[in-house]
Design goal:
- The protein is 50% helix and 7% strand.
- The protein is an alpha+beta fold and 507 residues long.
- A 5-stranded mixed β-sheet has the order 1-2-8-5-3. Strands 4-10-9 form a 3-stranded antiparallel β-sheet.
- α8 runs antiparallel to α12 and α13 (304-318) packs parallel to α18.
- It is globular.
């Protein structure tokens, strides 16, 4: 018994000595000491960005930790974010892909999870020049407006039902329907859910694929970070292969439907699937890239819009002064004889400040998707070795008391005093990222979020359920890459416009 114990202790001490030597000689960022084999895997709390913000108070604005043997570096202030996303942008533009991400991205043949190189440049050019142009976004605006007005009608019906005595609604259900219908119509050119919220068979399959993907992707797999343990997770690999086959079959059926429709009518729609299929030869895209790009749209657009609007509405019911000020602007610009349309948004400056303030406090992706070093670089005076994973804590940037006055206060007027850019040019505020990996669908997301908020606030006054105090609203986040409110927001809407303006006319 003594020999194994001595041997184990010796191995542990050798490991610690090696890590100490490596950290001191390599001048890595400081951080918590890793355990043998697992690193700091079990030191990290589920809501990672909050955990990292707390570690920044202990170790400084840049620190490192290990997942297995994989070195991770986190930056938590604007100066360091600029070093990562601008000064070292090209050398830190690769992606770290887990096995689930390898599958869904077709081994990095999409855009979001592709390494930086000729393929990424080509696909990024396709997105900028073809998919997310102002012309295409304008052509798709009727879909967005159709879904938002359908949401308003459903809210109106449900809050005015005689059986709904308290008029209390769970807002997330309505926001999720808009996000789901909007992104599937934009991407696949199909509405899988009817006006009553019933999903057809194909839509159920889509939701199941997304749900199963999140389940697989969120399952801890030490084999991702300790290569010699991968054999232990054989069942997980088989589940991934089955998920990949299911996803590909679903997507190819829809691609084939659109190909047949174009041959019959000779007409190409503005939807992304038609655009990609008609541009496939011009941009030399293999099928894996088309499929990967379509799923980039689904995964990036399905949750983030609903998350952003729910957080904004939570802040607005907690801050009636701000809600009233938005409604005064809407009444002044729109009046009470018609509803909002997207062309009105440019005139709603205070509403735009509300969107910014919500994104500052509640970025839907609080930890920027991980960058990976393709070369050795220096950040904050520390060495970042090739192969390291680098994270930017966007949540910390938006709450830095050295930058933002009263950072925890929801105060849209701060953007009247200084109109801080949120499109990647100001490193204090990066809800959509910056540099080579900035979100290409940023303008689409901003348009839809602002439109949803404009309709909700123009057509209803919002309050908390009877007996619920402002301080009772749970403003904590759920764990995950994207962060829903931990407790779904329950609210009471009261219509404020003539009744005929709540009837949705389907397009």
């Amino acid at each position: 018994m003594a020999l194994p114990l001595v041997l184990s202790i010796s191995i542990f001490l050798i490991f610690l000595s090696y890590k100490l030597y490596h950290r001191l000689t390599a001048k890595l960022p400081p951080g918590p000491w890793p355990w043998p084999v697992i690193g700091n895997l079990f030191d990290i709390t589920p809501v990672r960005f909050r955990c990292f913000a707390e570690w920044a108070h202990v170790y400084g604005p840049i620190f490192s930790f290990y997942l297995g043997s994989q070195l991770n570096v986190v930056v938590n202030n604007a100066e360091l974010a600029k070093e990562v996303l601008k000064d070292n942008d090209q050398n830190l533009a690769n992606r770290f892909r887990t096995k689930p991400l390898e599958n869904v991205s077709k081994n990095g043949m999409d855009l979001i999870w592709a390494d930086y190189g000729p393929h990424y440049v080509k696909v990024r050019k396709l997105c900028n020049l073809e998919l997310f142009t102002p012309k295409r976004l304008e052509a798709l605006s009727p879909i967005r407006e159709d879904e938002v007005t359908a949401m308003v009608e459903n809210i109106f019906k449900d809050c005015t039902k005689p059986c709904n005595v308290s008029k209390t609604l769970m807002l997330r259900n309505y926001l999720g329907s808009v996000a789901f219908n909007n992104i599937t119509r934009l991407t696949f050119g199909k509405r899988f859910m009817n006006s009553e919220g019933k999903i057809d068979e194909q839509g159920e399959e889509l939701k199941a694929i997304v749900s199963n993907g999140l389940k697989i992707g969120g399952k801890p797999n030490l084999g991702e970070f300790v290569p010699w343990l991968r054999w232990v997770f054989k069942d997980d690999n088989e589940a991934l292969e089955a998920q990949d086959r299911r996803l590909e079959k679903f997507t190819r059926i829809i691609m084939e439907e659109h190909t047949i429709a174009r041959k019959k009518t000779g007409e190409t729609k503005h939807h992304f699937v038609d655009a990609l299929l008609t541009l496939q030869k011009q941009y030399d895209l293999i099928d894996d890239t088309v499929i990967g790009l379509l799923w980039d749209m689904i995964t990036a657009g399905m949750d983030t819009v609903a998350i952003t609007v729910e957080w904004a509405m939570a802040e607005l019911v907690k801050n009636p002064r701000v809600q009233q000020k938005v409604q005064e602007e809407l009444d002044r610009v729109i009046g009470s004889n018609r509803i909002v349309n997207e062309s009105d948004i440019s005139k709603l400056s205070y509403l735009q400040y509300v969107v910014k303030e919500s994104l500052r406090l509640h970025p839907p992706t609080p930890l920027m998707l991980p960058h990976m070093a393709s070369n050795n670089v220096k950040v904050g005076g520390y060495n970042i070795p090739k192969g390291s994973i680098v994270h930017v804590n966007v949540w910390s940037l938006g709450r830095d008391p050295k930058i933002w006055k009263d950072p925890l206060q929801f105060w849209p007027e701060r953007f009247i005093i200084e109109d801080v850019d949120m499109k990647g040019h100001d490193y204090r505020f990066l809800p959509f990222g910056a540099g080579r990996r900035i979100c290409p669908g940023m303008n689409l997301a901003i348009n839809l979020v602002t439109s949803m908020l404009a309709h909700l606030l123009h057509q209803f006054t919002w309050s908390l359920p009877p007996g619920v105090k402002l301080e009772d609203v749970d403003m904590l986040e759920s764990p995950g890459t994207v962060t829903y409110m931990q407790t779904s927001l329950q609210v009471v809407p009261n219509p404020r416009l003539p009744l005929h303006l709540y009837t949705h006319i389907s397009q």
